[in-house]
Amino acid sequence: MKIGIIGIGSIGGLLARRLAAAGHQVRVANSRGARNVQAFADEIGATAADAKGAVAGADMVILSIPLPAIANLPGDLFDAVPRDVPVVDTGNYYPGMRDPQIAELDDGEVESVWVSRRIGRPVIKAFNNILAYSLAELGQSKGTPGRLAIAVAGDDPAHKALVCDIVDAMGFDPVDAGALADSWRQQPATPSYCCDYDADTMRRALDQAVPGQAPKTRDHLVTQYGSLGHSPTHQDFIQLNRSANPIA
Question: Reading across the β-sheet that carries 47-48, which strands appear in turn?
Fold first, then answer.
């Protein structure tokens, strides 16, 4: 499969590395042009590109950039991309910690619905509710007891199925999280967010999300992250996230 990835940070870079290693034809890009990603592309066996080069001829496009950067993508980026090509959004909104305020999101618009509206294309929300360490180190073979899960939300069944296949191939159980409008249930500080749950627990966590609660929990968690000290472990983050939203 030809996969274009825009953004090579903690999640985008891991996806690029794993997908290239699995034999996919991966093109990587960021906001600074092909030259800026050349060394990384060479390291993982991918092709360096600019944003338009990454999406040209792709069978799947992955956007793994901060949400405010979505507004800086070329306005015609997807004009020549066929409608049957899935666009995956891995992003999360962290106002006051990493991101400037986005009024529509602060007013309650679902993050990936906002992304879809900004780029003029339907998107699939995936790979946003798992920590980079988990994605890199904790994948397991299908059928392994306790295999970790990743939520996948979107409106196009064929696009969602293709993304679920990628999730499975990377060592995680895909959990159908509903329509794109339901993807608020996997946004930061919800019960399903970055807690290293198996599929059954992930489904319960998605079901137990409360509308409007996550921003309050998120702002509280931001202050608590600082209490973890200078060298918090992966498990420290998992336990803090779980304690913020206990699963019944």
Answer: 47-48, 25-29, 2-6, 60-63, 87-89, 124-125
